[in-house]
Amino acid sequence: MMNLTFYLLTLLIVTSCNTLSKESKSIDKKIEEVVADNNIPSLSIGVIKNGKIALIKGYGHLSREESIKVDENSIFQIASQSKMFTGIIVNNLILEGTLNIDKPITAYLPNEIIEDSKKTLSKITLKNILNHSAGIPSDACSIYSKRIEGEAWLKGYSKDDLIADLKKLSLEFEPNSKFQYSNSGYVIVGFICENVSGLSYKELLRKYVADTYDLKNTAVSLSSEQKSILVTPYKKDNREIATKASNMGMATPASAIYSNAIDLTKILLEQINAYRKEETQNPLILTHQTSEMGQGLHYGFGLIKETKGNDIKYGHGGDADGFACEYFLNPKKNTGVVILTSSGGSWVGQLANNILENL
Known about the structure:
By secondary structure, this protein is of the alpha+beta class. It has helices at 2-16, 22-37, 82-95, 111-121, 126-130, 142-146, 159-167, 183-197, 201-210, 224-227, 252-255, 261-276, 346-357; strands at 42-49, 52-60, 75-77, 258-260, 291-294, 297-299, 304-308, 311-320, 323-330, 335-341.
């Protein structure tokens, strides 16, 4: 881990001296054009080629009212990319023997919930929730039914709120019968992880992710110093209107972790190496157990596997309240891309995929 940290620091010095390769300069130019053409307030990117960091850089400013430029250290919320980190936490608890993905989730929930919803919850395994085949409506947690798309959620979501929602949970289909993406499912996963470990999700993220992979700015909540480098998000349908980072409370495991390009590029490189080495016991391998999404796509534990002929790539992303993230890796080609932005839309995934395909 120390070697990787040293390499990153060395890279930043080289990058700051503008000694980019010809290919990196081409990517740099492409991003500058996209940012200008789409009126994007800010963006950070990390690119890996041949197993090495080829580019890591920021564009724009922390806000339209500030002169402070965005760089690779600037912090964003990563929306549904948070699910990947929840999957990593689950994998660690599985390896430790604390969780069994094939057990009904009633084995891991407090009795006060089980008594009211035993018939419904006993049908669902942890694996069903993780690969979105549980039948849990995406808005089963009231935070998702109440929030307005494109607007920041500032009211939080307490444990009591979640328990009340679980007690009246009804399924949209029989578990394991089909795929349907569910934000609420990953909220429940985060709660299960807390209940079985005795740790808060904040502590779990720090223990199994931030400390393990030296991710200094990947967190549930921010310090005063971190808040000073938090990017201001803007509505994607009107990029002149600022919004705010959301306070998602117990829904953070699904939708509201903070991170930056440095951290995501670090773990992207670690994940590429884990897949290349086929390290079956590595918690970064999130696609041992998947559900079929269709069109060559399979969903694992917070990571999507896409197969096209002999080519396999993995990825996820998120887009909420202005913030957006795309995260792609192709282990066979030893490449990867992560993009963070303060105003999302379909252009983010298109840009990330285009860069990956041309590495």
